[in-house]
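Thread: "does anyone have the structure for this chain?"

Original post by V.I.:
We have the sequence but no experimental structure in hand. Need at least a predicted one for the grant figures.
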Amino acid sequence: MEELNLEKDDVDKTIYDYLKKKHNITKFNRLPVFDKLDVLMRNAKVIFLLRDKEETRGGEYLELMHALFRGHAEKIWFLKKNGIALSAMLMEYLDKYEVKMRTYQGRRDLDSAVIRTLKYQLRNSDIAH
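Reply from O.Q.:
Generated one for you, tokens below.
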């Protein structure tokens, strides 16, 4: 691991120069956001989507899930705070793709659910491989 001093106006150039020097690269391109998500999803053992505040009806979750569901639905856990309503369309997506859903009361309850889920998911993935 190395620390880079990044200039706010020229982050890409700083990273490119570092990679060129360190790894002899000749080209540097930023990935589109969905390509970045796809790389993260392929490598993730568990994906948590959290709904902690009710600021919208949940459309942003639909957009995100539509991208994530391409082969990754079995990894997704949807955690929502008790009392937060979900739109009918969001529920359709969750049910259609059999996303595992849990509710929680507060931060301690959420922490416990995440730790418990990670423990079993990681243990099961190690057994499978």
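V.I.: this helps a lot. The chain has one domain: 32-128.
O.Q.: and Helices lie at 11-23, 33-43, 59-72, 88-96, 107-128.
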